[in-house]
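Support request from a user on the community tier.

User writes: "When I paste my structure tokens into the form, the page sometimes reloads and wipes my input. The last time it worked, I copied everything first. Here is what I submitted, just in case something in the input itself triggers the reload:"
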């Protein structure tokens, strides 16, 4: 089973995947795989992000031998996955998390806005029917891991799309 661990940068994909790896689960960092597999085809100078050949990377991912693999990356939902888990975070909290990473103002804003409008969830739903959301805002990393494992084990009801809604947060901005 391939599980996408996706979400806006700063929502906690890597922190969660590191904990999963500590617990013995197989985790693949998609950014690293993209470089190893030579599927990074350039850099978007305007947004300062790598451009990945998604089809070529998809082929690499599909070739991975596995019973269960978690794919860490903000475009992991574009792979041929069985389940996509979108980590979410209240945009106000996300802003703090990204500032703590020393990201510049523009990149922080771009990502806070993407989170506010459910960008990754919408994109994930376009290709992965089995898309779920876990709100990390009031969870610890261990609790996020617990939620992820519950989804994988089939206890999905609590994590169905539609429960995360940042519209009240956005209204407070104006
Ligand atoms: N419930 C949570 N789940 C995951 N990360 C969390 C949580 N609460 C706080 N964090 C923190 O948020 C940050 C997320 O960063 P990171 O894991 O690098 O995000 P991403 O890989 O999605 O860009 C980390 O510093 C992590 O410790
Ligand atoms: Mg990460």
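"...and here is what came back when it finally went through:"
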């Amino acid at each position: 089973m391939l599980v996408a661990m996706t979400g806006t940068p700063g929502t906690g994909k890597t922190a969660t995947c590191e904990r999963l790896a500590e617990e013995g689960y197989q985790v693949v960092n998609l950014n690293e795989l993209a470089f190893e597999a030579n599927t990074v085809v350039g850099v978007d100078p305007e947004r300062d992000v790598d451009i990945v050949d998604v089809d070529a990377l998809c082929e690499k991912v599909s070739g991975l031998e596995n019973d269960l693999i978690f794919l860490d990356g903000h475009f992991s939902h574009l792979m041929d996955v069985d389940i996509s888990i979108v980590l979410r975070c209240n945009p106000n909290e996300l802003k703090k998390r990204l500032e703590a990473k020393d990201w510049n103002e523009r990149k922080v804003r771009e990502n806070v806005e993407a989170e506010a409008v459910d960008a990754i969830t919408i994109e994930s739903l376009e290709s992965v029917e089995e898309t779920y959301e876990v709100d990390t805002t009031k969870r610890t990393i261990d609790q996020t891991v617990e939620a992820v494992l519950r989804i994988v084990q089939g206890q999905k009801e609590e994590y169905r799309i539609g429960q995360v809604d940042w519209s009240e947060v956005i209204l407070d901005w104006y």
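Agent notes: The reload is a front-end session timeout and is unrelated to the input. Residues 13-14 surround magnesium ion (ligand 2) (CB under 6 Å). The chain has a mean pLDDT of 96. Escalated to web team.
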